[in-house]
Amino acid sequence: MGETPRPARRPRRLRRTPGLRELFRETRWDVAQLVQPLFVREDDRIDSQVPSMPGIRRLKVEEVAAEASGLEELGVKAVLLFGLPTQKDDLASGAYADRGVVQQALRTIRQEVPDLVLMADVCLCEYTDHGHCGLVVDGRVDNDASVGLLARTAVSLARAGADVVAPSAMMDGQVLAIRVALDLDGFRDTIIMAYAAKHASAFYGPFRDAAESAPRSGDRRGYQMDPANAREAMREIALDVEEGADLVIVKPALAYLDVIRTARERFDVPLAAYSVSGEYAMVKAASKAGWIDERAVVGEILTAIRRAGADLVITYHARQVAEWERGRAHGTR
């Protein structure tokens, strides 16, 4: 027998040392590309703890500026705010109240941490007594009646200091209505980050626990997207961009990497991916059980989302990742 043929090409040459692997790495992410969601509660009648999301707390308005300041100091450039009002009603009046919980939080953070990018979710589910993302009329979520209140909410948040408003209710025409309302009120520079491809996902359970926003009856499949539809997601994104969205979100992230990739190839606008509460909770649970290395897994998840094409990643791990990176820079783990 002759000598075993030796390979002419050896890809392993580029993997031999840590320095080589770093040099030839194709996909990178940075803490500055992460957005930390924050839950803001109106008062002590709402518990601070979120059992399904270890490490995440519902902050009081007077606590949120300190948290935001800490995030900025760690290198996180943006937060996304969600509110928990003490009182809810059928008109979601807390969503657009001048003294609403998120409006108060925005003013507080803006005063204390002026350079942090402030994003605010625009939806009604946390403020309605029925838990749906729009107004319920005759047993159905009324799209057009809801759009008006979403626009009113966006303007209220912009007045309170939001740099970015993020409509997430999945009502047809919501982006256009919000853009028109913002412009008429003098907020032409306020950015719209549309939850354009938001799927009716089973991964949202811990968020609904944290935000106390689960619908009391029925579900949201009549307005959030069918998880099976990727082509429809492109139509949704195209409509939101046409209506004036400055950037768009694909939500969830991990189970929808194909949607992120297709959106990246088709649309030349900034693209965010929301690594949602269920993804966070699963990683935390597996880490607590000793089944995975949390830091390594989170790094791999962020790499996968960036590799698929996302420019920004909204993740509940943002603070922890920033702390890990700070430790790495200082030579500790």
Structural class: alpha/beta
CATH architecture: Alpha-Beta Barrel
Q: What is the helix/strand order?
A: HEEHEHEEEHEHEHHEHEHHEH
- Overall morphology: globular
Strand proportion:
15-25%
Q: How is the main sheet built?
A: 8 strands, parallel, barrel
Mean pLDDT: 93
Share of helical residues: 25-40%
Q: What low-confidence regions span 5 or more consecutive residues with pLDDT below 50?
A: none
What is the fold-level CATH name, i.e. the topology? TIM Barrel
Name some characteristics of this structure.
39% helix; 333 residues; eight-stranded parallel beta barrel; single chain; two-stranded antiparallel sheet; 11 helices; alpha/beta; TIM Barrel
Describe it for me?
With 333 residues, the chain is an alpha/beta fold. It has one domain (29-329): TIM Barrel (Alpha-Beta Barrel). It has eleven helices and eleven strands. The strands form two sheets. The protein has an eight-stranded parallel barrel, surrounded by eight helices. A two-stranded antiparallel ribbon has the order 5-6. Helix 8 links the parallel strand 9 (247-251) and strand 10 (271-275). The longest helix is centred in the middle third of the chain and has 18 residues, at 143-160. The mean pLDDT is 93.
Question: Helix and strand layout, with pairings?
Answer:
Elements: H1 18-23, E1 34-41, E2 58-60, H2 61-74, E3 78-84, H3 101-112, E4 117-122, E5 136-137, E6 140-141, H4 143-160, E7 164-167, H5 174-184, E8 191-198, H6 205-211, H7 231-243, E9 247-251, H8 257-266, E10 271-275, H9 277-288, H10 294-308, E11 312-315, H11 318-329
Parallel strand pairs: 1-2, 1-3, 1-11, 3-4, 4-7, 7-8, 8-9, 9-10, 10-11
Antiparallel strand pairs: 5-6
Helix pairs in contact: 2-3, 3-4, 4-5, 8-10
